[in-house]
Amino acid sequence: MKKTNQKIPVGILGATGSVGQKFIQLLEDHPYFEVREVAASERSAGKTYADAVHWFLPGKIPEKIRRLKVKPCDPSLKCRLVFSGLDASVAGEVEENLARAGYIVVSNSKNHRFDPYVPLLIPEVNADHLELLNKQEYTAGKIVTNPNCSTIGLVMAIKPLLDNFGLNQLNVVTLQAISGAGFPGVAGLSILENAIPHIAGEEQKLETEPLKILGQVGEKGIDLLHLPISAQCNRIPVIDGHLLSVQVSLKRKAKREEVIASWQQFRGEPQRLKLPSAPGLPIHYFEEADYPQPRLHRNLENGMAVSIGRLRECPLFDYKFSVLTHNTVRGAAGGAILCAELMKAKGILSAIF
Amino acid sequence: MKKTNQKIPVGILGATGSVGQKFIQLLEDHPYFEVREVAASERSAGKTYADAVHWFLPGKIPEKIRRLKVKPCDPSLKCRLVFSGLDASVAGEVEENLARAGYIVVSNSKNHRFDPYVPLLIPEVNADHLELLNKQEYTAGKIVTNPNCSTIGLVMAIKPLLDNFGLNQLNVVTLQAISGAGFPGVAGLSILENAIPHIAGEEQKLETEPLKILGQVGEKGIDLLHLPISAQCNRIPVIDGHLLSVQVSLKRKAKREEVIASWQQFRGEPQRLKLPSAPGLPIHYFEEADYPQPRLHRNLENGMAVSIGRLRECPLFDYKFSVLTHNTVRGAAGGAILCAELMKAKGILSAIF
Amino acid sequence: MKKTNQKIPVGILGATGSVGQKFIQLLEDHPYFEVREVAASERSAGKTYADAVHWFLPGKIPEKIRRLKVKPCDPSLKCRLVFSGLDASVAGEVEENLARAGYIVVSNSKNHRFDPYVPLLIPEVNADHLELLNKQEYTAGKIVTNPNCSTIGLVMAIKPLLDNFGLNQLNVVTLQAISGAGFPGVAGLSILENAIPHIAGEEQKLETEPLKILGQVGEKGIDLLHLPISAQCNRIPVIDGHLLSVQVSLKRKAKREEVIASWQQFRGEPQRLKLPSAPGLPIHYFEEADYPQPRLHRNLENGMAVSIGRLRECPLFDYKFSVLTHNTVRGAAGGAILCAELMKAKGILSAIF
Amino acid sequence: MKKTNQKIPVGILGATGSVGQKFIQLLEDHPYFEVREVAASERSAGKTYADAVHWFLPGKIPEKIRRLKVKPCDPSLKCRLVFSGLDASVAGEVEENLARAGYIVVSNSKNHRFDPYVPLLIPEVNADHLELLNKQEYTAGKIVTNPNCSTIGLVMAIKPLLDNFGLNQLNVVTLQAISGAGFPGVAGLSILENAIPHIAGEEQKLETEPLKILGQVGEKGIDLLHLPISAQCNRIPVIDGHLLSVQVSLKRKAKREEVIASWQQFRGEPQRLKLPSAPGLPIHYFEEADYPQPRLHRNLENGMAVSIGRLRECPLFDYKFSVLTHNTVRGAAGGAILCAELMKAKGILSAIF
Question: Which of the four CATH numbers 3.40.50.10320, 3.30.70.980, 3.30.360.10, 3.90.1070.20 does domain A149-326 have?
Fold first, then answer.
């Protein structure tokens, strides 16, 4: 960044999709970043963004973005940092091409999450995994990934438990919002006054991604955490906000108050660095018997906080509790933006700007 | 019953409430029973049923019932068999008074479920518990209870596993419909586009009722099954149909096909006796990846069947799967009616008719 | 029909779509008709029905239909009567080809509704329009059409008013269920906790179709009724059941009781002929202040009745009231089946069977 | 107000109710007003606000308010300006008592809306009606009322039409959100996957309130506008945002572009005075075919703007179009706050502060 008053130009890959729209909405008036490029499939390329998009978020398309020409997702984009909301069917190759061409790619797609030297990053949890970037094969470019939307809330909730008490087992059943499936995603006829006990690929992500995120940087990438996890995923008629019923077995027995204190005292690099999108308090614990709830608490701290409630002893594990995260903010676009803010604060973006 | 072509007159306690309405709807044209008395709180007593009730079920109030006078819930009711959909705040005393006065009470309320000699009955599961009635303190009258709406589906699903493979542990997370809370029950403002991770008293019922239902008749009532159970209960915006994410550890390891076969081959007394409300197949197993679903499968076999799907191995337990039951039919009024049908078939009603 | 105990074999065009599924569900155990052929696009042709369909209706696919091979929509179908739930993009040509090839096509698609000699039929309203068939250009084959799903309820509600009092003006605002848009149709993200004030093409249908249905058979087809109609259409988060807010100006002033009596006394050919799908009472008038409601009343008379309520004087027109119809039963597949039943009763099918 | 840096202390009547909660939420960090008193029924009086309220709005109770002691709604409140969200069953007398005791009452309740010298105020529409206050019978105190939640959007939409083209007739059908009924209000079992064609008293408000709001200040209060209005009201499963299907007959024929321009150019006193809660643009017209929609547009301009779309010619009236307003912000608490801001700007509050 040549001048401090100049924002870093960024591009959005998959800009017309659901995650892409959320990137655009959250980056309006961002203090570090300014969306200058919107890229999408060839079908959209050449149109103005307003013509190409079926905007389905509350509120209007930001004025500056409406008239941007949609470009293809290739190295013609005039920026060095791109946020990717691409569909997994195309993200793998596109993101790799851009990284090879010198772009820094912060991706919400699953394709590169398990590449050995690609951080699977939750800034509050494993900021140190950015070290991996030094070993990435791309010369100037880099790929950083954001975990799956339901993984993020789960991992933020158990990180303080892991640090303070150790974890033996983790069980989770999800009640997930439909925005996680993109647009059009789940048909109204499928989900209205209904629930669906299946989300393709989701359980596998919840059972594996935490092991990398909570692992240690080793010689050949991340040494995975050893932690047996079982996940069952359900879709429910909620727009935004994934609610999880969680159970944990701890290595060291802990009192209820200790567990709650571990959440309330939890802070990470984003809080220490006062990053613009960082929630002041990453975890909010509620004593109310019926909290947290998606519609009431998903927008806490602009959708970047995790809400927890109902901590109680469990006849099978040590504790059970409920966790809520805004799946398209903290769990997708907002989480990815926080990754980029962390990278800027750590000087990782300075090489290219 | 003096003549075979004469139906047994029955009364409904709490007839204007949500369970009461369902009793009335399900008993329209019942081959054994005919609703002759509707009883409710003093506020309603004296009015016609049509005037007293805020009918909220699909369809119309049965014509014969509209003009019945609502009576108080006391021994003036001209029938010997009553179905109780009373609120727990009053059910305890009312039901006891009626039993003392010689009525047979089949109750959906929780108050007497753990009385030592009161059967907590699921006809397919523990028909033999009717033996307890011999030891009940009431002279002519009797009390039989129906389990909690989410317990019923759970216990029907695990009964074949218990019988065939034995059970070590049981974990369940529920996604429950709002009709379980009665009317007006859950406010629209609370549940629309939302989920609530709490249902008062529900987890405790799920963790204890199965132990009695699956227990053995002993000297002093039921010897409880030993089975550690953990339950977490959530309310979701569905009208009818409780969906459960279940995990089990078996005593004897079983193959996936064996587990499914145990469900498909499961039959109970209602099937052997061909009771009018009995589902032909008590458990339907679905191979489709995203079944069962509340809106699609709750009405299978007139709402009396349990639907199961997604059986798969579990990293923490042996198996995990999803279970669905219609909470106000099989899980409440329909289940209670099946109990009464079983009692009739077993000659238990003959003493009084 | 050669023998009385033999059912007429029928085929379903567009059998895997939403209307097609409803045809199959409603024709299970039909006394006149038996589904022997299921036809769909080339993509599905050759598969079994169970493999080709994404079944989204409550309940299971009828056993006999599961294993039927899906065929293309052409004259190779081994039946002479077909029900069409084809998409309008293909229905026009396909239906015409089949009619030319000697099939009787009862169609739910819009394409031929305004062909001069094609009846736009509501059996209770304009059974006499079947006369038009004599002038149809096809030799053995015929095309009969079913009106749009929201038109049917509206026209049934105003037909008694037109007959008894005459109509000067008609105003209607709709609150329509999402099943009217087929599957996947309206995205969950679009409609959950929302309403959409637009349904493509719907207002134009509501403003024109009644004029043909209520017109008179003339020399060159139907002489349209003269009646200015204005329609505004909204989509709401309801699965089934279109609710209409209607206003009418009458030619002859009528008392409230006369209007209600005209609805209650209304009967048509299906009632006189006791057709199997005919509702005993085509119109149910409710005095309750907040009836009719989609979830409570859409299934009255197996979804074939129209429900009306809230008749009251209007400051601008003479009367206003609310009308409810099940849009996929009476308003689509059920309505079309009733048309075929009428044709059978009138001997129109005898030529070919 | 003695010092410019001091905020005006205000009280909330009915502070624990749904409108009361919204007042508290919207007044957090308000530049003019600071909530110092929360008043409610005797049942709540004496408790802290956090203990007395069942908070059901998204987000948390503002910290400063949590610990306020709830007081009775009487002249012991230490403030001179009160916002009333009281239920109509008690508002009449309470508000009158407070006005007599010298309080300025800005009320969202219906009780005093038609008192001759009480303004029924929409600041953009009839700011001049504040003149009426000079004739109010109370010495120091005053009562100002906010119209019904669905009236406000309707009147803002037709005011530019009235001013520019004159109005002969107005027809409206509403699709109203459930938050308009307060908490608990509409039962989940009543409204989920349903619509209800009736809202008690609502149609009468829509047919009469606009006549006063759009009337002229005369000798004995407001000379009502002459305008025949017909309203039909429906409740739908939406949390916030009333959607209206409107039809108008104009006195002077106008082109479509003229009508749209009249909306886009509409400004009122709040815009001229740059009141803190005033929307920059009071009316947003959308050209998109399916806008406005409750979930997408209710929060435009912090919920204070009215959204209009789908203007098209009407076969019965001149034009038809759709209008959307946030019913608890612009249509209730936010609208009342804007009234108070207008009063401050006009010097009406200076007498008492």
Answer: 3.30.360.10
